[in-house]
Amino acid sequence: MNGNTMQVLSLNEIFLVFIILFFIVIAGIFTFWLFRRYRWAKAGLKEVKKMSRKEFISFVNFHFMRLGYITEKTRQTGETSADFIIKKNNRKSAVLVIRSDRKIGVRIVEGVLSAYRFLDCSSFAVVTDNFFSDEAKEFAEDNNIELWDRNKLASSIIAVKKGKSFWSTIKNLFTFNRYVNRYFGSQTNNDIGKNVDPICAVCGVEVSEETKNYCLQHKEIFFGKVYCEKHQKPLIDNFLEKKKRLTE
Question: Angle CA(52)–CA(54)–CA(55) in degrees, nearest 5?
């Protein structure tokens, strides 16, 4: 009798431990789910769903500019080519941007390789606001293609903006970047640039008032943001290249 009682108690204890572990796992999964969505929202990816493909291309283009790359729009565009080239440290990479409500399959990832015949690039990347299929990941790994899914893009944006509103920066881009207006049309916003701290938007280093005023006086280059001299250079070079192409 006592043995049966001990056995029942033991089974009850095991069941209780199982229930506790089950709820811990569920709580962990739910916490991870909330954390991912918080990061997506913080990175401005919620607004991406409202964008057209061209708007998303400029969203990604500008992010690479903030990472210190010089960007150059390509003539070949679409799901079987590359949308722009990024250049840094004498290295050129072709970037294909895909905004999609579904996972990105291998066919689209294969498409970026077709740009190799037209673009003198050493590497390739595909950036999306969604995720990649397993087949696409395998193909990318075999062909040295860098994949930026929703999580990687969000992490990169958050690392750059350091708590600032990336979406408001994109709005500044739409307003003051002359060559991006070829996508969206011109807009005006006289409030951009007011009450701006003398802090570099990329590295957070404090700059002089003279440097701050220089940036704010050249909104067509710096989009109403402040940059230190180091991070001004890629933006100036990029602007001059764009201006040259527009006047050709």
Answer: 65
Q: Each residue of 103-153: pLDDT tens digit?
A: 999 988 887 777 665 677 888 899 998 899 999 999 998 888 899 998 888
Instruction: Give me the count of residues in the chain.
Output: 248
Structure tokens at 225: 């943001």
Burial (CB < 10 A; 0-12, 13-18, 19+), residue 92, is middle
Token pair in block for residue 52: 């057209």
Q: Are 206 and 226 in contact (CB under 8 A)?
A: no
Tokens representing 70 are: 């010089």
If we measure between CA atoms, which residue out of 67, 58, 71 comes closest to residue 97? 58
How far is C-alpha 241 from the geometric centre of its chain's CA atoms? 23
Tell me how crowded residue 142 is: count the other CB atoms within 10 A of its CB. 8
Question: Whole-angstrom Cα distance, residue 175 to residue 224?
Answer: 9
SS3 content of the chain, % helix, strand, coil (to 5): 55, 10, 30
Instruction: Kindly list the distances between the CA atom of residue 188 and the CA atoms of 142, 177, 236, in Å, as whole numbers in the listed order.
Output: 46, 11, 22
CA-only gyration radius of the chain, Å: 24
Angle at 86 between CA 83 and CA 91, to 5 degrees: 135
